[in-house]
Amino acid sequence: MFYIYKIIKELVFMKMSPQTFVSSLIIFSFLLTSVSCNKSKSIGSILKKENSGIIKPKPVPEKKSETIDTTDYNNRMLALANNDTTGRWPVKTPYPLAGAILPYNRIIAYYGNLYSKRMGILGELPRAEMLKKLQSEVARWQAADSSVKAIPALHYIAITAQGAPGKDNLHRMRMPFKQIDTILKWAKPINALVFLDVQVGHSNVKDEVSTLESYLKLPNVHLGIDPEFSLKHGEIPGSKIGTFTSDDINDAIDILADLVRKNKLTPKILVVHRFTQGMVTGYKNIKKVPEVQVIMNMDGFGDKILKKSTYLSYIYREPVQFTGFKLFYKNDIKKNWTMYTPEELVKFTPKPIYIQYQ
To answer: Which parts of the chain sit beneath pLDDT 70?
Structure first.
């Protein structure tokens, strides 16, 4: 009672309007009532010590949103569809989990293997030169389409198909983990995503992707699978173009989705390369889940007319979710060919959201 009396006494001598004074009296009358109705509570549980004022509630930590803004997502997907009138695009899929990379970013990736200068720009140039060139490509894409943020990625072939059968007779070679560690180290200074690409040879998606789970658990590591080098009838890789069924692709999706759920990750991205009809079968049966975002990447080199025709035939007409486009620094400029520019590709329907340079 002494503390309430003291506070009321101090209020009397404060310069305040009659209305404010009456309001203050009402508040303290309520406090007195609360104390008298519950004698087990001491006045110290309601008021702090003298000169401390009323106890303020602790701020509640702000929770991160567990859902996406669906209106914004829909608008971005419509923009990528680029006025498609056939109803194919945008593809109807479940909304992704919060933290999804697509369609909020356009990924600009350098592809290759550190053991070979012939497999792509990633292994061809020294690290510093390669990263600088990649960042310049990111800047070009950002300038070509300012509505989508362009971000860098390193797309490393972690399991390569082989002409020789190898010890296990599976015509594939798993790269040492120290090489993957090197790629992760290179990616860090420029905040790049990392993709681990798999060429199964005579093996299968489930067995090969499972060997990379320790890396795929990392938030910035994603997956690529290449049906060109999946030979199901004993052919030597490189002698014939291989194939993936929807079941093969779904095996990869299941592994990624399980990792996302178990490790509480944001959605993973799966890149599937394609440049022929037979490379992917049963596209309508490819799973669409909130944990995985699927990109069908238009692979293959050639002149602009051929590449656009391939994009229309196998990527546009058989929609899965998102699209990609591969550019070859060397093979796209042979025979007086010219390579597509960012400004040209953002006019495609749908607009590719993943760009790969080899």
So the answer is: 1-65
Residue type, 274: R
Residue 7 CA to residue 21 CA, distance in Å, equals 12
Q: Which residues contact 62 (CB under 8 A, 6 or more apart)?
A: none
Question: Do 170 and 211 contact (CB within 8 A), yes or no?
Answer: no
Distance from C-alpha of 61 to C-alpha of 59, rounded to nearest angstrom: 6
For 106-129, how does the pLDDT look when each residue is reduced to its tens digit (9 = 90+)?
Answer: 999 999 999 988 899 999 999 999
Token readout for 130 is 């390669």
Give the dihedral sign, CA 330/332/338/339. Answer: negative
Q: Is 311 exposed, middle or buried (0-12, 13-18, 19+ CB in 10 A)?
A: buried
Q: Which of 201, 196, 197 is nearest to 229 (CA)?
A: 201
What pairs with residue 230 in β-bridges? 201
Cut 0.85: pTM above it: no
Residue 65 confidence (pLDDT): 55
259 neighbors 265 (Cβ within 8 angstroms): yes
DSSP 3-state of 229? helix
